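Sample entry (172 residues):
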Amino acid sequence: MLGFFSSSNNIPHPAVQIFMRGFSSLFRNIPVFIWAILLTASFGLGVLVGTLSLVIVSVGALTRAFAEVLEEIDMGQLEAVKATGANYFQAIAQGVIPQFLPGFFGWSLYMLEINVRASTIIGMVGGGGLGFVIQSNIKLFQYGEVCMGIILILAIVLLTEWITNQIRERII
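Predicted structure, serialized as tokens:
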């Protein structure tokens, strides 16, 4: 939805586009690591901090990516739908969405892969999860458990990549 408001060819008023692009730039240009530190100071340690920091950066990045996908659609198809007498919402549903879906799925799956990888780093600064376990075991010199955590992270990353590749092959 935010991508529609950020794209130049689908929004009726340019002020909305400028505001949404600024909003997405603010959220995506501050690294997830910095968001985690800021949110840890606000909410304390825990999984909520890691989740919120990943969501904030993902919303900013996906808003920008979806806006660019929407700006690359074939306007001829949209004009053909409008020529049949379709209103704004019908034109979006029939002329924009079918062209937008492959980019939507591709960018969403890519962001999922990035978030799985970034969640480990977030955990090390107080966001919970395996990153927190690894960080605390390093401080306790429990290198066997650190090694097991690293192996688990590697397995999760490879499994996520395999699953997203399978989804891409079937959907896109």
